[in-house]
Amino acid sequence: MPSSNSSIVQQPVRTVFFISDGTGITAETLGHSVLAQFGVQFNEVRLPFVDTLEKVHDAVRRIDDAFEKDGTRPIVFSTLVKTEFAGALQSSKGMQMDLIKTFVDPLEHELGIEPAHAIGRSHNIANSIEYENRIEAINFSLAHDDGQSHKNLESADVILVGVSRSGKTPTSLYLAMQYGIKAANYPLIPEDFERGKMPSVLAPFKEKIFGLSISPERLAQVRNERRPGSRYAALDNCRYEVSEAEKMMRTEGIHWMSSTAKSIEEIAVMILQEMKLAKRSY
Amino acid sequence: MPSSNSSIVQQPVRTVFFISDGTGITAETLGHSVLAQFGVQFNEVRLPFVDTLEKVHDAVRRIDDAFEKDGTRPIVFSTLVKTEFAGALQSSKGMQMDLIKTFVDPLEHELGIEPAHAIGRSHNIANSIEYENRIEAINFSLAHDDGQSHKNLESADVILVGVSRSGKTPTSLYLAMQYGIKAANYPLIPEDFERGKMPSVLAPFKEKIFGLSISPERLAQVRNERRPGSRYAALDNCRYEVSEAEKMMRTEGIHWMSSTAKSIEEIAVMILQEMKLAKRSY
Fold it and tell me: Which residues are listed for ADP binding in this entry (chains A, B) (predicted)?
């Protein structure tokens, strides 16, 4: 579809294909990064698990059909590791962005190793140690969400603290899911501010604590979606909680950052960096 | 480090850099897919948020230091959207895999649009509708994990069912986190098998149900890690539960698959495909 951005001339319809012998997550991730630079919308088609020659031929037909229909050349981001499949895809009328061939060929030359051209190597395989770590981290993070459990806090890799709705839960789950990091999280609540101290159960783990803050305006907006018109969501209350929480983080000398206007991915990677945490799994 | 794979000649140490002006997730994702084809281990260095010329120069120094130390050319996967930064990185002694330039330049020609070369476009920005959908989906999936709540099941996009430890929780969270899909999940328990019916609360939502199964051997292994030597984890009990669950899924005529030896990503994408669910967010 054409973009609604008025600074850009109306564009013809363009279809983008993400074609993979696996999940297609790699093709989509890179494709989105590249396409985002052009500020127009594309008609997206995902074709995962294209792992037989028959499915490749079907993909070629769909690309050629889109070419007929749109009157513009479809753009094809593909990760087909088998040379035979990648070659068959080339027969389509699309503009080919072969992510594997583009980088594997020069690397083969540089490394002097023949590539395996084997499917399904890019994600954790179930049963591997990395996979087990990841599942364990997800279970840990779920069990230690919102201060639910104080058990085994010593095995946490990081403990996120912050006022309610500052982004602790999605960040903890993302750290576990993507990186195999055991991330507990604890809310900072008015009782903590009155005492002027972090929850005492966290005292032995100070070096693992990372604080998330948020702008009071954004916090009020988020809380109002959950409990409209409540004291909890009132801007003056949000201002008080955020100011007290930040004061506490400074006093205790812990690492912290604001989650306002950051994506979950950005917050997670910043925490990895600040806390010098090695990822446990891809 | 050299690979322990005996079929491969001992390789010299190679350092791989993932350099980005953002989180580096795109560079890492594609880099891993490509490197996985070579079956050797690399010494990995991540440099996210390289968003000033000073940081680019620091990255160049680190690449050149690795070259000195290893005696082999480092491999550099980079996503620096600013032409000035990408250009400055080229002065290093590394082997450059510039993921942006490689694909943006030909696309510029094809689309006839000038790329923005703007940082931070590849992930959801907080405040956007997609971002809100994603957070809402995570909250929904958490609230509806393991049959915890029957409320608002009508707004679920998918309801996963399966025996305890068949992979429902990580899959639900991944669907929410990555795709903004509201995924509830319900355990199938011995009481359900005795009645020979799905939990009655799910009856109105049959078209949203997707089943996960698992091999009894794998299930026993997973359950034994959690409750060693228990009846719950015994192989004959796992065989009974899996057989009853699969029988029920067939009788009810719902879509289902085995999660054995599949990654969370693979299971999630297969569910999207089978249930014809459009992703709600990147």
Answer: 162-169
Q: Which CATH number is A129-274's, of 3.40.50, 2.60.40, 1.10.1740, 2.30.30?
A: 3.40.50
Count helices and strands in chain B by DSSP H and E runs: 10, 8
**For the residues of B132-166, what is the DSSP string, one character each?**
HHHHHHHHHHHHTGGG---TTGGG-SEEEEESTTS
Q: What is the pLDDT of residues B118-166, one digit of tens each?
A: 776 555 454 577 788 888 999 999 999 999 888 889 999 999 999 999 9
Cα(A113)–Cα(B231) distance, integer angstroms: 49
Q: Cα A222 to chain center, whole Å?
A: 21
- A269 contacts on B by Cβ (under 8 Å): 23-25, 48-49
Residues in chain A with CB shorter than 8 Å from the CB of B113 are: 8, 11, 38-40
Task: Give how far A128 is from chain B: nearest CA, Å.
Answer: 9
| B25 interfacial to chain A (CB closer than 8 Å) | yes
Query: B-chain residues within 8 Å CB-CB of A37?
Result: 81, 100, 104, 115-118, 121
Tokens at residue A231, please? 């004291």
Contact assignment for A116 to B262 by CB distance below 8 Å: no
User: What is the mean pLDDT for each group of 10 consecutive residues in chain A (282 residues)?
Assistant: 47 90 91 89 93 97 97 96 95 95 94 82 58 90 91 94 96 94 96 92 94 97 92 97 97 94 92 82 45
- The distance of B63 to chain A (nearest Cα, Å) reads 16
Interface pTM (ipTM) of the complex? 0.86
